Amino acid sequence: MSSMWQISVPGSTANLGSGFDSIGLGLSLYLKLTVSLQDRWEIIHLDDNGPKEFELEEHLLYVIAKKIADQYGKQLPACRVEMASELPLARGLGSSAAVIVAGIELANQVCDLGLTVQDKLDLSSQIEGHPDNATASVLGGLTISSMDENGVVDTFHVNDIEASFVVYVPDVELKTSEARSVLPEQFDRAYAVRASANANMLAASLMVRDYEHAGRYMEADLFHEPFRAQLIPQYKEIRASAKANGAFGTALSGAGPTMISIIPTAIEQNFVNAMKNQFPEHQIILTKADEHGVQVKFKRLLQK
Ligand SMILES: Nc1ncnc2c1ncn2[C@@H]1O[C@H](COP(=O)(O)OP(=O)(O)OP(=O)(O)O)[C@@H](O)[C@H]1O
Ligand SMILES: N[C@@H](CCO)C(=O)O
C-alpha cells in the first residue's frame, strides 16, 4: 500500500486597499499539489507558475516543509510532489503565502503533526511576516486579522462574500520585498489616524456586506498605494475605467502589480468584456471568493 495526498490551497488578495497587512480574501484560483512518498525528493511543476530552475534546498515548498518538520522534531520523508498553480509568481495574488500554507500542510500530513487551524494561522503568518494572505489561504473567505508580538494571530473570518472580483495581471513581476522598500518607515499622527479610519471603514463595510461603501474605502488607502502607484502599469487608468464600467472600487492586489476590482455580480460579463477591450496587455480574470481554504484529500493506493 502507498499513500497519496492532494492538497489544494486558494490564492488570495491582500489589503483590499486600506486594510494594509491585515485584510485578506481567498480567491477561487488555486495551487494544487499531489504528494506521494518515494526514495528521493522530487518537485515537478506542471505549468509555468513555478520557478524555472531551482535547487531543491532553495525551493520554497521544500524549505517550509523541512522547517516545520524540524520545528516539531520530525524527519521529513522524501516526497514526489506534482504542483499545478493558477497563481503567477510575484504578481500580488498571494503565490508565496499559498506555497507556505501548502508546505505547512505537506509536513502536517506526511509527518502526522496534528496541527490545529490556529497552528496553521500562526505558523504561516509568522513566516509571511503579516497575516493577510496567509490567513486567507488557510481559511478562504474574507479574513481580518491581527498578529501580536509573539506571532499569535487573531482572525475574524467571514464567508458568503456575494460579490465578484476581477483581477488585472500585467506581464511584469514585482517582488513584495521591492514593493515594501518604497514605503515610508513612519507616518505622522494625523496621517496615521486618517489611514486607520479608512481601514476601519473598509472592514466595517465588508462585514455588513455593503460593497458600494467597501469599494469607496478600497480606493482610499493611505498606507501604501500612494507610494506604490508609480510602480504599477496603468494604475490610474485601470481605476478610472473600472469605475466608469460599474465597479464598486479598485485597489492593488497585495503588493501589486496586479490590480483588483470588486464588482456587482449582475454586471460581471459586460464588465470583463469592456475591460478586456481597454486593457489588452493585461490578463483579466473574473474570480470569486474561495469558501474553503486549504483542503486535503488522502488516498491509500494498492501498489502494483
Ligand atoms: N509555485 C511556487 N513554487 C515555488 N516558489 C514559489 C511558488 N510561488 C511563489 N513562490 C515563491 O514566492 C516568490 C514570490 O513571492 P512574493 O511575495 O514576491 O509574491 P506574491 O506572493 O505572488 O505576491 P503578494 O504577496 O503581493 O500577493 C517567488 O519568487 C518564489 O520564490
Ligand atoms: N500586505 C502585504 C501583502 C503582500 O505580501 C503588502 O502589501 O506588502
UniProtKB/TrEMBL annotation:
Catalytic activity: L-homoserine + ATP = O-phospho-L-homoserine + ADP + H(+)
Domain GHMP kinase N-terminal: 60-141
Superkingdom of source: Bacteria
A Pfam family the protein falls into: GHMP_kinases_N
Enzyme Commission code(s) on record: 2.7.1.39
Main localization, broad class: cytoplasm
Broadest EC class assigned to this enzyme: transferase
Chloroplast listed as a keyword: no
Compartments (UniProt record): Cytoplasm
Pathway: Amino-acid biosynthesis; L-threonine biosynthesis; L-threonine from L-aspartate: step 4/5
Entry keyword annotation includes Amino-acid biosynthesis: yes
Coiled-coil annotated residue ranges, if any: none
Keywords: Amino-acid biosynthesis, ATP-binding, Cytoplasm, Kinase, Nucleotide-binding, Threonine biosynthesis, Transferase
Residues annotated for ATP binding in this entry: P88, L89, A90, R91, G92, L93, G94, S95, S96, A97, A98
Gene3D superfamilies: 3.30.230.10, GHMP kinase, C-terminal domain (3.30.70.890)
Family: Belongs to the GHMP kinase family. Homoserine kinase subfamily.
Known function: Catalyzes the ATP-dependent phosphorylation of L-homoserine to L-homoserine phosphate.
Matching NCBIfam families: thrB (TIGR00191)
The name this protein goes by in its record: Homoserine kinase
Source organism (scientific name): Lysinibacillus zambalensis
Lineage, broadest ranks: Bacteria, Bacillati, Bacillota, Bacilli, Bacillales
